[in-house]
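Section 3.1: Structural characterization of target chains.
Under the original work plan, the team committed to producing a structural model for every single-chain target entering the pipeline before any wet-lab resources were allocated. The record below documents one such target. The sequence was received from the expression subgroup and is listed exactly as submitted; it comprises 163 residues.
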Amino acid sequence: MERCDECGFDYASVPAEALPDRLRGFGPRYSAGLRAARDPRRRPAERVWSPLEYACHVRDVFRVQHQRLALALAVDEPEFTPMGRDERVVADAYNRRDPAVVLGELATAAGELATAFGGLGPPELARTGSYPWPQRQVRTLLWLGRHTVHEGEHHLLDISRGS
């Protein structure tokens, strides 16, 4: 995946040096997105998450991607395990979470991931791991960073559409 047909995100449009700022920017943007939602717990359709569930998901994406980045820096070509995105919504009761707490955790996770990417140079960004979704594929850490930015952008769009 190099471009998302649904949201228009173009992976190549995010240079490595922009990753930290793009990631840090998600804290305030998600806060604004959740504040704009009429009811952050309301699912707009049967198989569509609520704005709060999307915020929880993105928080967890940032955490999981940080773990994957650390693993790829420590181990040659690791196999990243799936994060269980759909299972987490239910198991972690995303829609019962306190939105203020979730937003704080999301901002923290984004900041920690931003700091980690900020410390990487070209050799580290070229390291690879097997990414499990939507199909197993070997990906660089630069792609991992870009994909994480895509997740953040795409789910902000989901929140605005569902509000």
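The chain has a mean pLDDT of 95.
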